[in-house]
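Dear colleague,

Following up on Tuesday's group meeting, I ran the structure prediction for the two-component complex that the binding team flagged. I've pasted the input sequences exactly as they went in, so you can double-check that nothing got truncated or mislabelled along the way. The structure tokens for the whole assembly follow below. Feel free to forward this to whoever is handling the docking comparison.

Inputs:
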Amino acid sequence: MKAVILLSGGLDSTTTAAIAKSEGFDELYALTVNYGQRHQFELDAARRVAKAQGVLRHEFLDVDISRFGGSALTDANIDVPHGREVETMDEVIPVTYVPARNTIMLSLALAFAETVGAQDIFLGINQVDYSGYPDCRPEFLSAFETMANLAIKAGVEGRLKMKFHAPLMYMSKAEIVRTGMSLGVDYSVTHTCYDPAPDGASCGECDACQLRLQGFREAGYTDPVPYVKRD
Amino acid sequence: MKAVILLSGGLDSTTTAAIAKSEGFDELYALTVNYGQRHQFELDAARRVAKAQGVLRHEFLDVDISRFGGSALTDANIDVPHGREVETMDEVIPVTYVPARNTIMLSLALAFAETVGAQDIFLGINQVDYSGYPDCRPEFLSAFETMANLAIKAGVEGRLKMKFHAPLMYMSKAEIVRTGMSLGVDYSVTHTCYDPAPDGASCGECDACQLRLQGFREAGYTDPVPYVKRD
């Protein structure tokens, strides 16, 4: 069965790819969107993960939304926060929010899916550990699915009924790590850090690193990627 | 008042820009998406139109969805149809359909709007003359608007309530031309043809040319752009 997966090369999308395969989606089409992130380590990781997961076709697409600004992930004038407590992260939508990012990436995945004839699209969004992003919520994804089936020719003609899968939606980071480990995922090829060192080592202090480290700790595993600082 | 407008440089988006201005949107932010169309004449026209309409800021964004294939507008292996009768154009969704095009362009416009603080987005879609595209229908746009307000930080925080305007939705091409003429639009700077000659002259025979020519004819005007062949 065919499926398109949005693959960032991080822990979540990598685990999602493994889950899709375990559910019988053996023809995976991966889409990695370069939206002007500050660093290239994510893209390198996506390439390694796609290879490890036996992806059939992997497309990289550049969409330079960084020129719009408005996010710490794409705008060098906004600092990535360090050392925040995990418990306080869901109090406000963080500065690492990228305007309409998931809407844009899902739109591109929709185009890819229609052209390859896939009606299942997987993405690694999750609302438990990190509820700050509006476009990681189930109500957003449900509204997107409704819109998508009105948008495409194959939907209107009844050839494809698009379905969006977010299998991590209600999992904690620890559950994600445990699920991935049980499916044999090699997390050493992934990349999560928002603010890595020049050699690619994760900072260990940004929101994303802290959540990842906590997930491995609670799951009872040691994160195999290198860190500049690890509590 | 601020508004974002998707500006292709064609007759419809140009008229839409003039309508937005006439409705009091005097701070226009234009977004032109280069999605791998076969020719650059559209982009040149967009630049001229933005200047003529006094656009405050004009962003060009490349999104190479042509690599996905699946459309005569982006895939050199699929021929653009010529000489079809206008009356038969709405019988099937045409090969010039580009997978998820309007979904992608509206997603990018949404990101632009959120960063500049605009809550009104204009686009020149129209379902009367040419009902073949699923993503030109009001039910699509309505579903997109619902999704958009769940997707963005400014929507969830109550700072912006996104509204999508498609003022041409129920107009015939002749009505569009008449409206634009009454607002003083200079159509000589626009470009519509799907398959222009090397010098940029419109073919006069593709679906888009035929609809445009018929619109001018029925409105009682002569189209000012050059044609290779004009009935």
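The first strand of chain B starts at residue 2 and ends at 6.

Cheers,
M.
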